[in-house]
Design brief:
The structure holds 3 protein chains of 3 kinds. Chain B is of the alpha+beta class. Helices cover 10% and strands 17% of the residues of chain B. In chain C, helix 3 packs parallel to helix 5 and helix 10 packs across helix 13. In chain C, 55% of the residues are buried. The chains are: A alpha/beta, B alpha+beta, C alpha/beta.
Chain lengths: 312, 96, 393
């Protein structure tokens, strides 16, 4: 495990960019922030393995590529498996031929991670490959047109869970990716949010210093899919933390730590009213669902508090 | 990249690889925008928030931590203006 | 004959060849009848006999995904599967060959479900035929061993750079003990030089692998891939010749028996070629002018060679160990019909379906086929549809 020195100010973040503009990600998309910061936090030599999805499609339309490091795309559900194969290959090539093993960063959307890619991720975690898995979670299959995923939060309207007259949006709750990852016995997992860049950068630094698999769950705002104002993406991301609907916490060697302890949460309506996908929840006929969601948020927060408590 | 554009099958690199990094820079997304950010350097406190949050990135960070906008790629999303703590960036209509 | 004579079953022979090839990465998921391959390989690795990374993936889809990733680093990679496993990794087959990932895969030919059947059909071999993989067929355990070594050599050749499959009949070859000559390790090292990758993953030379193509580039990329497959044929011939000289065991794209003056013949794949030849020899003693054509190379399909071979033939029975529902004929039949259609001199063709799910092909079945071929040759009339043999009505 290499030394990990957290930053205190954004000025300490390196200037060099290894991710180039000219990509086709939407105006106001917060995916690039995790890519840029990850590439700055993880030292060279490094490579990226990317699942099919927004990031992959928008940054590598032949013959244009936004990547300044080796970048591999195989298919939708196998980023973790592909990365595992690459990692195993470099491990053995290092032994047999002295070729230096690069750090491997895996990017997958919530689609390619929570759903179709879950098996491959599970296998890779179990086998203990040395890789940094970053799930950029925009809470639906955005690239194919905003269809629901198991990361879509309860109540959200998507094209396959529309806010209809009979069923008002997605009825199922969001899967707990960190919980699933931890169940594999990995040593480090954390949530990240673009509105907290210093916290995010330090988690990336910490992840880079670890050996074995780490899972980072990055909350990303999608103005296109969420029907929000692109200029408000960071504002919305901050509200996700401030309303406790997306807590910022990390798990390290058996201990949980809540990084942003929200003492007085903002009302969830403040977060919902900025996004078209939630507006139906502010209607009186859907009050029951809104109450359910509030209850879920509170329960999850209490659960994390307890876990953090036992950890001290 | 101009070496790949419009090439036929005999000349394209095998395996559909793009063997040159960062060729996306030839695709100027600046023509996407309707609104454009205007930075008042006098107000800027060099906090670097706009630089961190810019998706392209279309904010250039200079040696002294001052910043400037790269209009070749700026899509006019307005995040920089929204996050600036001293309101040094205003969004104006493109063409103004 | 170079090598020392030992007894191994097909799976073990393949594993032994992979070990001697000094493979770097093995990513495979067990499935009958290939399990012995992965078991033997993990034994070699854990005993320190093979310096490779064995990745115990959680499914066949991940097996090929990991293999593709590993191949892109420049490592020598091997995987193996059968039947359902191949079906599960199907989308990655196309990706592997399109990305020019030089993986070698052993396929223990087994029938597709449902009903689930673990015995020999060529369903899986045929399923891969469109995907851009080079395909070899082994007739016996010796060939399974030899073709595995040659597959690495062919796939990794700079003029080829395409993944390849070595087909060996499930249970009939995978689990049957036969005598074979295995080369010494140093001989294998001589024949098979280390892999020299063309675009390896290298942070010093950053490359984007697997981009998105819109309609302005996709067809060019595919045209290029098609040419790679077409032109791989000459390299395959070279490697076959080199190996034949090196070992004293002859390898060629099509094996023939009696084709110099045959009036009728059988075209067949896999281990049943042996049965066909056994019957053919018997009929030859009776004065019947019969021939047998069996394919060691299935993809790229040796079309021009086949055209030349069949010029003097009156009737050709194409035997398929699989079935393509709703098609005008089973898979090899379609390959051969398309190859011969425009020839001025060509035999009448008819299709025999045999051996599905491990149903035994007996000499009397083959005799029936040759009889039918003579009937077709005499009457000039071909059966309306394919003939299924060995089936209870």
């Amino acid at each position: 495990m290499s030394q990990f020195k957290p930053i205190k100010s954004l000025k300490e973040i390196p200037v060099k960019e290894q991710f180039a503009p000219g990509h086709r990600l939407c105006a106001g998309c917060t995916i690039p922030q995790v890519v840029r910061l990850a590439l700055k936090a993880v030292p060279d030599p490094k490579i990226v393995v990317n699942a099919t999805g927004c990031l992959e499609v928008a940054t590598t339309i032949f013959p244009y590529t936004s990547w300044k490091i080796p970048w591999v795309h195989n298919a939708f559900e196998n980023a973790a498996a592909t990365a595992g194969g690459i990692e195993a290959a470099f491990r053995i090539l290092e032994k047999k031929r002295g070729i230096k093993k690069p750090k491997i960063i895996v990017f997958g959307g919530d689609g390619g991670t929570f759903d179709i890619g879950l098996q491959a991720l599970s296998g890779a975690l179990e086998r203990g490959h040395d890789l940094i898995y970053i799930c950029y979670d925009n809470e639906a299959y955005m690239n194919t047109g905003i269809q629901r995923s198991s990361a879509t939060p309860k109540g959200a309207a998507t094209t396959t869970s529309p806010a209809g007259r009979v069923i008002p949006g997605k009825q199922e709750r969001k899967k707990d990716l960190i919980g699933i990852a931890i169940a594999h016995g990995i040593s480090y997992a954390a949530t990240m949010n673009p509105a907290y860049p210093t916290d995010m950068y330090n988690k990336l630094l910490k992840a880079a210093s670890k050996k074995g698999p780490v899972v980072l769950h990055y909350f990303t705002v999608c103005p296109t899919g969420w029907r929000s104002d692109p200029s408000q993406s960071i504002e919305i991301a901050r509200l996700a933390v401030q309303t406790r609907i997306f807590p910022l916490y990390e798990y390290e060697d058996g201990k949980y730590k809540i990084n942003i302890l929200v003492k007085k949460p903002k009302p969830i309506e403040d977060y919902f009213k900025l996004q078209g996908r939630f507006r139906h929840l502010l209607e009186p006929e859907n009050k029951w669902l809104l109450e359910e969601i509030k209850k879920d948020i509170e329960e999850n927060w209490q659960r994390l508090l307890k876990l953090a408590e036992i950890s001290t | 990249m101009s070496s790949l554009k419009g090439k036929g099958w005999k000349e394209l690199p095998i395996g559909a690889v793009i063997p040159i990094p960062a060729t996306s820079m030839e695709y100027k997304t600046g023509n996407w925008r309707a609104l454009k950010p205007v930075l008042d350097q006098n107000k800027c406190i060099k906090c670097l928030l706009c630089w961190v949050h810019c998706p392209e990135p279309a904010i250039i960070r200079h040696e002294d931590d001052s910043v400037s906008i790269d209009y070749d790629y700026c899509k006019g999303c307005g995040i920089c203006s929204n996050v600036c703590p001293v309101k040094a960036i205003t969004m104006v209509m493109e063409g103004e | 004959m170079r090598g020392r004579l030992i007894g191994l079953n097909g799976d073990t022979a393949v594993a032994y060849a992979v070990k001697q090839a000094d493979v770097d990465v093995i990513a495979a998921y067990p499935i009958t009848p290939q399990t012995i391959i992965v078991e033997k390989l993990s034994e070699f690795v854990n005993n320190g006999e093979l310096n490779a990374a064995f990745v115990p993936v959680e499914s066949e889809h991940s097996a090929l995904s990991a293999s593709v990733g590993a191949a892109l680093t420049g490592a020598r990679v091997f995987t193996a599967t059968a039947s359902q496993g191949l079906a599960l990794m199907y989308e990655i087959l196309w990706i592997a060959s399109s990305l020019r990932a030089t993986v070698v895969m052993a396929l223990g030919n087994r029938a597709f479900s449902a009903p689930i059947n673990i015995h020999c059909s060529h369903d899986d071999a045929y399923a891969a035929r469109d995907t851009g993989w080079i395909e070899f067929f082994a007739e016996n355990v010796q060939e399974a061993y030899d073709l595995t070594l040659q597959a690495f050599r062919v796939s990794e050749d700079k003029e080829v750079l395409l993944p390849s499959i070595v087909n060996l009949d499930g249970f009939i070859l995978t689990h049957s003990l036969e005598g074979l000559y295995v080369l010494d390790d140093k001989d294998v090292r001589e024949f098979l030089p280390p892999k020299e990758p063309v675009y390896p993953i290298d942070p010093e030379h950053p490359i984007t692998y697997g981009p998105l193509d819109l309609y302005d580039y996709y067809i060019e990329h595919k045209r290029q891939q098609a040419e790679a497959m077409r032109s791989s044929y000459s390299t395959i011939l070279k490697v076959f010749e080199e190996y034949s000289e090196f070992t004293g065991r002859k390898y060629e794209p099509i094996k023939t028996y009696g084709m110099e003056d045959a009036e009728v013949a059988i075209a067949i794949l896999g281990s049943s070629a042996g049965t066909a030849r056994y019957v053919a020899r018997k009929l030859r003693k009776e004065g019947k002018k019969v021939g047998v054509i069996s394919f060691t190379l299935y993809r790229p399909f040796p079309a021009s060679k086949l055209r030349k071979l069949t010029r003097g033939l009156k009737a050709l029975a194409v035997m398929d160990r699989s079935y393509s529902f709703g098609s005008p004929g089973a898979q090899l039949f379609m390959d051969i019909a398309a190859t011969l259609f425009n020839e001025k001199e060509r035999p009448l063709l008819f299709n025999i379906i045999y051996g599905l799910g491990g149903r035994d092909l007996k000499p009397e079945h083959v005799e029936y086929v040759f009889d039918k071929a003579f009937e077709v040759a005499e009457t000039g009339e071909t059966p309306e549809s394919e003939i299924w043999i060995g089936v209870r009505e």
